[in-house]
Amino acid sequence: MSRLNAGPVEIWRLDGDTVNRVYANVTQGSxxxxxVSADGRFLLMVNSVEGKVQVWDVADPANPVVWADIATLPRxxxxxxxxxxxxxxxxxxxxxxxxxxxxxxxxxVRVAAFENFPDNVTAVDHWSPPYxxxxxxxxxxxxxxxxxxxxxxxxxxxxxxxSDQEWARYLPDVERVPVC
Length: 180
Hints:
Blueprint: E1 9-15, E2 18-25, E3 32-36, E4 42-47, E5 52-57, E6 65-71, E7 79-82, E8 88-93, E9 96-101, E10 109-115, E11 123-127, E12 132-137, E13 140-143, H1 148-155, H2 164-170
Antiparallel strand pairs: 1-2, 3-4, 4-5, 5-6, 7-8, 8-9, 9-10, 11-12, 12-13
């Protein structure tokens, strides 16, 4: 796909040595093609002036359809990363990162919000399992888990727990409660 200045958004098909334009449309506003999902199904369009993101379904490149509209911050330059299956997308701006589920057309669902990072987010990515989405800030890599059970397992070191003897030794004045 391509777009020059306020010209049309164009989708091109490359078949060996043959190049064909299969779609061209002038969009209203400052929309720019930004990223394509790994499976090639979704195209993410960004209008950073108005703070909007559109996800287009381009499975049929001659007839793309808007799959989802997602608001971001006006004048922000979003950082974007699709999950490998294309059904989730990570949108990052300055000190916030949100994960959106795109399973249903017209109904994007924010499944996670990671906000108030100590420094500006400088990049986002999706790493191979078991890691998933990550955000980078000055000197740090943040794992962005969206599965609560996985978060608990990570925090509890895979299910580690204090024995009754350890509880009595380290927390003698605290009533025993379940942890991890």
